[in-house]
Amino acid sequence: YRYFPVPPGDGEQGSAGLVSSPGDSAFNPDTDDGGSHGTHLGGSAVGKALGGGVAHWYDGMAPDARIAFDDIYDEVTSPPNGLNAIPTDDIAEGLFPPAYAAGARVYSISWGGVEPEYTGNARDVDLWVYRNDDMLVLVAAGNDGETGFTTVGSPATAKNIVAVGAADRSVNATIDYGETPDYRIVPLPAASDANAYAAEYVGLPAAFGPYAGPLKNVPVVAADPPEACGPSAAVPRLDKLSNEADVRGKVVLIARGSCNFVLKCNAAEASGAVMVIVTNRLPEFANDNAPFPFTMAAPWDDGYGNPAANYSHPLVTIPSAMVSYADGQKLYALADNGGAITLGDLEETGRDRASYSSMGPVFYDLRIKPDVVCPGTSIRSAGSDGSLTTNQCGGYVEGTVSPILEQTGTSMATPLCAGSAVLVRQYLAEGWHGTGRKDVSSGIAPSAALVKAFLIQSGSKMRTTDGPTGALQYKDTLGPTNNYGWGLVNLTSVLHFNGERKILVRDRAEISYLGAPQHICLRAGAGNGEHLRASLAWTDYPGSPYYIAQLSNDLDLVMRSPDGSVVYGNHMTTTDSVGGVRKVADQINNAEQITVPSPQSGGLYVVAVRPKWFWERDAPQLYSLVVSGDFTEEASCGFSADQLCENGCVHGTCTASGYCQCDFTHYGEDCSIAAPQLFAGTSQTYTVASGGWTYMYWEIVSPGGSFTITYGGSNDPDFYWRRNGFPSLDVGVADFVDYRSGGAQQSYTINNPLVGTYVLGIFAFCCSDSTGTVSLEGSGLVAGPTPPPTPAPP
Prior knowledge:
The protein is of the alpha+beta class. The chain is built from 11 helices and 43 strands.
């Protein structure tokens, strides 16, 4: 274990640059020779360049923070043997205590295994956080995302941590690195335009002129003349476009041909255009580079035969791009109908999930992972020169020896999120959350759950390649996804300063099993375009690798809208062949979020936390809550628990905790869905969406009989039944469990079953819908409906 302050010599530790604990040299020769992995990560989180220069561009997220680090990699044994340098097999007690004792309250882990389930390591981390609830642990999700779902590896599968995925390189970073990404040209047609347009068109940036800054909702117009050239080949230059007045301040479309690209752009720029889009033509000869777009280059001459070095016309200072012929025709139609464009790449900078970033869900309970995402592609940070004497960084970027090193992976994303967590802790410790101004007297020592809630509260939706086409697209959902969790961390969306945004914080609030829901009354403001969002997180009792379900204590985040409708945390829905599409409360994750994109002006919103199911009932469950948006908190709003029970619990009762307890023949959040009943000699087909449940039941009315149930289905469904109750993934809340048969047809016989109602729950495992059939044979069952008599023959 090593500890040093950053920058060296500052802070409470005086000038001590390095302190080592006894025995660490058994595995480590004290240099970072593992590709500078540790040095790079430390620099990203809290690094601060000394002596000025361009290295300051790559300061860490929290450059004035202090760092404690552990070198756990075995650099001596051959071949390397992974994490043997951890002092004990228990990573909780062997890894975290020294850093915690040094004052660290955010711990960043950029290592892990490939097991996509809840392992002993995951449990160890959960146990440490449960016992030390003010230390947030962040873990890299892994780099196996191109393999598909369920690729997040332990210990990132733990509950009480923040698993971090990686975003692709942002446009701004790409430009800084001397590259120009393709433009995503998003059409914005006028209301009267009946044409169909693609979601976006690709434009290839020119090799000359600047790269475009942000362009949003800018009108587009066709050039006159269309090719923006002079009257003849002998006079190719056109000083200005004929429709100069119509072009000014707009994006202009120019057809390829008759003169070089620079001259076209000169005419557009002189006419006041803000950008040029050149449309390619149809092929005119063999091997023609039409109709597809290509990178436009500056010509060898100025259009008059003079060498390029002797250009007599101005250089291009507006951006330009080329699109294909087909896309160009669409953009001409857009222009003819008064439409506009937005450059999507600049509008949504860096919001693409990196293809390598591992995805959830977690085996076997299908919890959401990763939790959040930070940039992880082509990250430039400190590198190690491998020397014990120079005390200098050393790296290699763009062919040049440099103190900066460029690396890629979720390992790189994790310290950036960890640095963000440090900033959140500072924000809360200094009391900014109360009024948007520093007030140390209002500062708090936040729990790990509260800092986690802030990170997921800040999440922004991302684009991902999930889908049959493989195209980048936004997920049409308000809740988290297994592609990127709650989204890309963006602290500016939640931290408020100088009263610019309202934020409400609850930390370590207590709620008891079977207790009443706790609520907050919020009156929405007049509307400033900002969403209303609430995020809930709690540090849960550790699970077990031997269990299916890992959530010990289940809380629900619920919001009652002004119209009386109820919204559940994480905006989850499911569907089955009986109840159709329906919303459901989350019963697997210990973090939940609700987003209202456009709150009703002046509307009353009630944010509530209700206790659903506790495995650990000896003490209250602590939780943390963050709410942000434009609202005013009201002291009272006539709230009662039954307001959270939708439709009055049609076939059930509303509990004091504010949820519906259904009778054994109906299910759904409001107990409105009639479960199919099985009788002796009958069968029932089913379909249920991945991650969802469907139910059916049978009744034993007389003792001494027996029944045989036969079941199976596609895509690995799991089967649970329970007498006089609803089964769940928790094996302690089921009388029968089969989650290993893989959906193959099975039969199971029970002799002398107890009298009662038996509820069968079918859970569709990851990551496709399940379809199958269940049949029942036996005696002592409720008799089925009497079939209608057969008509007599005529």
